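One chain given next:
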Amino acid sequence: MTGLQDRLTPEQVEEFGREVDELRQRIVSDLGKEDVDYIQNMIRTQRALEVVGRGLLFAGFFPPAWIAGVGALSLSKILDNMEIGHNVMHGQYDWTRIPELSSQRFEWDTLAPAENWRHSHNYVHHTYTNVLDKDRDIGYGILRMDEGQKWHPYYLGNPVYATLLAIFFQWGVMLHDLEVEKVVKGERKVSELKDVRARILRKAGRQLGKDYLLFPLLTGPLAPLTFLGNATANLTRNLWAFAIIFCGHFPADVESFTEEETESETRGQWYLRQILGSANIEGGKLFHILSGNLSHQIEHHLFPDIPARRYPGIAGEVRAICEKYGLPYHTGPLRKQLASVAKKIVKLALPGGRTEPSPAPEPATVRRERELTAA
């Protein structure tokens, strides 16, 4: 837990917020055909991979064809979930007025209904990023991912719950909106969730019917192999999405906040919270695409409604702004971030378990003044 007010003076926060706003406006003013072409090419690529993957499963009796089919279908589901669905439903392409790119019309290839997800993710998570008791993505109502969460013997199973959540991640996201932990505590009534449940049942019925009934039956005697292929592709997508999302939100250096800290929050303070509460993952161009550019989680939390393909191009500028104001810019390779998340999950399973964040960097202006004084 950190003190937001202790990071910068009110004047610095205002200037910091102005610089981030200027960066945002420059990106928005530059949006155009290249952005549209990019996302439409991604959609075509995703659809082609799905057609190829499902086609190859019709030859699943031949092991190389089955493996290639599962690989293509896995990539298709990853692209649909990460680079297309997540970003389109954020409203990143609403400015185009193209129906298939409308955040309100898009439905993705996963169990969670788009309408439910837009509320829990776009509104709740991105408004209250890393605010304890407000941002339900902290632990997903299942895990203890922050020291501010009161320890209970239940959390001894933290590593087990995390493993199961990774394996069945699309199910976890689907059930997220039921707010089961609030129902158990008596904070919400089951009757209040009638519409949420109805959407879940409709979407789950269609999704499970497609992956585990329709397409397996279409392959006739190869139905068991097709069933297994679809399950493997879903598992691959689940593990990948879990890894990217948790590495962007829960490494040891990422900070959380109390409701009191965020009262009467200004635009600059909101930007500040996004930076302190996020982490990036380093990698190449293909890695960033397959992560939906959520490998640039800092930039995404700052600008969730700007096309994610823009994040790599502005990451250097965001990092320079952080350095100027002495703010941390959490980043590291996937293996480092995964190890940090895993260590955190294990430590917070125990009573008194604590994680030790790295010290915040010294502002560049202060460092120069100190060096000049020393000279």
Summary: Residues 4-347 form one domain. Confidence is low (pLDDT under 50) at residues 357-372. The two ends are 36 Å apart (CA to CA).
